[in-house]
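Handout, page 2. Input:
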Amino acid sequence: MATNEITIKKTKTAALHIVKGFTLIEIMTTLFVIAILASVAYPSYQNQVLKSKRSEGKALLLEVMQLQERFKTENGSYTVDLTQLGLPATGMLSEHKYYTVVVSAATATCPITDCIILTGNASGSNKNHGSLRLRSDGDKNWKKNDASWQQGWPDS
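Output:
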């Protein structure tokens, strides 16, 4: 009988020792899975941040264009002087300062009485995300850094 008791005690002790912690392989496997999930999630997160910043720039352009349309209704033409719209002369910054709106001067194909071009230039830490442009005829363009203007706005 005494021999059986000793064997049982050894088995219980051994079982407690195995359950006590994690092996290095288990920890490394867990870290590997977390790393793979992070490598997939982080670029997606960055893309959503970029879309959010661009959406802010688009909203700002539409807001200033609305002010321009109201000004044209009251005065018969658009204005390049943002102070006449109640905005700062240096350009209007978006809420989080990702974009600054400036008004382009009239051209032969776009006289100030009929047409205005607003440009939302990326600013601050957002500078490498490009510029957005909105014309009073509804034409929308964008360009990244020094590239040429492309038709339409990138997806929000």
